[in-house]
Amino acid sequence: MPQLNPNPWFLIMLTSWLTFSLIIQPKLLPFTPTNSPSSSPTMTTKTTPWTWPWT
After folding, report:
1. What are the helix (H) ranges across 1-55?
2. Which residues cross the membrane (predicted)?
3. Which of 18, 39, 48, 49 is 20 to 30 Å from 25 at the Cα level?
4. pTM for the whole thing?
5. H or E stretch including 8?
């Protein structure tokens, strides 16, 4: 059963994980989100219950 042989796939997984962790991730972390959360207070609105005609 050659699909269970981890020999070639472990090195590929390890290489891709290290590439992401050491090269790509530090380049992505400095970016700031475009929609930063605002600290404005949330306003509550008064809601009225719906009256169902069949009850």
Report:
1. 7-19, 25-28
2. 6-24
3. 39
4. 0.45
5. helix 7-19
